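Subject: Sanity check before I submit

Could someone independently write out the structure tokens for this chain? I want to compare against mine line by line before I put it in a report. The sequence has 694 residues.
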Amino acid sequence: MASFTLGLIAHVGAGKTSLAEAMLARSGAVARKPAATAALAAAAAEAASLLDFLPEEREHRSSLKCALAHLSYGGHALDLLDTPGSLDFIGDTTAALRVIDGALLLSSAEPGLQGQTEYLWERLEQRSLPRLLVITKLDREQADFHGRLEQLRQSFGNRIVAVQLPWGKAEGLRGIVDVLESCAYDYADPAKPKRVAIPAELAAAAAEHRHRLIEMVAESDDALLEKYLDTEELTPAELRAGLIQGTKACKLVPVLCAVPTRQIGIDTVLEAAVTWLPDVAERKAQRQAAEQTVDGYARDCMDNPHCAALVFKTQLDHYAGRLSLVRVMSGELRAGEELLNPATGATERPAHLYKLTGREQTEVKTLKAGELGVLPKLAHTHTGHSLCSPKRKVEFAPIDFPLPVLTYALQLPVKGEEEKVSTALHRMSESDPTLGFRHNAETGDFLVSGMGKAHLDLALERLQRDHRIAARFTAPHVPYRETIRAPAKAQGKYKKQTGGHGQYGDCWLELRPRDQTEPLAFHSAIVGGAIPRNFIPAVEKGVTEAMHKGVLAGFPVIGIDATVYDGSYHDVDSSEMAFKIAGSMAFKKAMESARPVLLEPILELEIVVPGENMGDVLGDINARRGRVLGMDNRGPKQVVRAEVPMAESLSYAIDLRALTSGQGYFTQKVSRYEEVPDHLADRIVKERQTAPRE
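---
Independent answer below. Compare away.
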């Protein structure tokens, strides 16, 4: 019995969960040997409750997390990962792509190619994952199979080849035409589809697509191409074998038809999955020895007889507690076996192992290489960690999760709940590594970061519902900086007499602008003992502390070269505290005379958008005071590299998706600081002075 680990990947609304449900129902994983259409529908409904079991998933009618399902078909074992379609929840999809051996990439036949499809295709390409393309929703009124097929070819190249065609349109959809087998399947009774001859009205289209299929299969293999050039024909066996070989090698991407809600094409999708996609053993053999290590981490364990596994997701269940979803990369994982976590040095001994279908657990004694399973209640192991036999230490490269692109400040109506919020968000981030949070001591904001508005709205909803925290999001404060544009000198003299020993410190300080990459370069030019050597560090400490709040609006100061060059002291009254205060006074006076300016953080963006949206996107960048650094092509998409002030891009994740109908996405990082234009700086300083932050 072969084992397969497959991911269901698609844009929002393509029907991934519906397909997974239909596959579970067809295989009998939910309802044993259904005998009628009603039984199939009931089985699919039961599967739906298994896979989308979170309250918010049922409310939003959309998958918000990666769901695991297990089934058997034709004597083969299949582990399925049903992934979220929205880029807001791309973290779970990223984790799934790390552990699957093949993919079912879905695309709706309704008008408009979703931008997420192109993003997901790129990720599949990066991991060289074999895939089948399944066109769904063929029974919708506006469904256009041939139009969608042509769009897919234009976007992804000539590897896209149809092996099935729909039979009928909209509500009149009756079945599918199998181009490879030169037959049709009538799904009048979905529980018992009938193999029939190709309808006369589809014979010409089927012949045309079969001819193209033969050409594409021949081009994918040198031996077949030579024969085809000689005879212009391939035998059915050669065509079938060539299609399988080309698909497993990622040279071909077959296109299938399915309507999961009516159980049309589900059996053929299952059959294609276990025939045309590589099983666990085949996929492992495809990896080359040269790819075994990445930056010192193991990528594969082809020669390791001992157990090694990767934790690709942590799931928190109200009843079962912490569940660690793993893929066994080598050997065999047994219940009760001691496992080493190389990242922490700790050992784990899971008492139970489970196969998972949604929330439903089935206990097993072992998990074999390539299988997905669940280890409950691991104390020292988190998402991305490796587990291995102590007999051979193996650590896999961490999962490369995308960085958050949208940040909000969390406003709490009741002070003193910060610790409670931190505990709740820490728990939530365990199951979602793309959710970040931190307290910005500078601005006072409690910042929560995520992949988009829907992602953060869901986090807020969970805080309110699960943790009883009444909070709301507001725009975060921009972490401005201050610096100087001219050199200046000033004296700081601190003298205090209160009876007995007094306090005396006196220093002269010179400030000069410098590179902003570091906050302070401090020098001493004291000669002749004007300030004793042991007090110089106190002057520096005073300067350093004064730089925490600049003279313009109280923002931290950067880009300063400070030199203490003169001063005086008192044999009795001078102290480190006095010279620290004197250093602080000298810095503030000198900065006031050094033409202080406000600086703002500049973000470097890489924006991927459809070509037809380029004009709108470029205009929007200009409106945000941004600069375009360059443009490139990436397949059918355009890549724009730009710099935009952080103050103008706090909501860019939302705005970009609105500009591109959800098809644009971007990454960002802080590049540097630049001066704020005078008219904006005046407003910021005034707002800061009239409403100072605590």
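---
OP: Matches mine. For the report I'm noting this point. The first strand starts at residue 3 and ends at 10.
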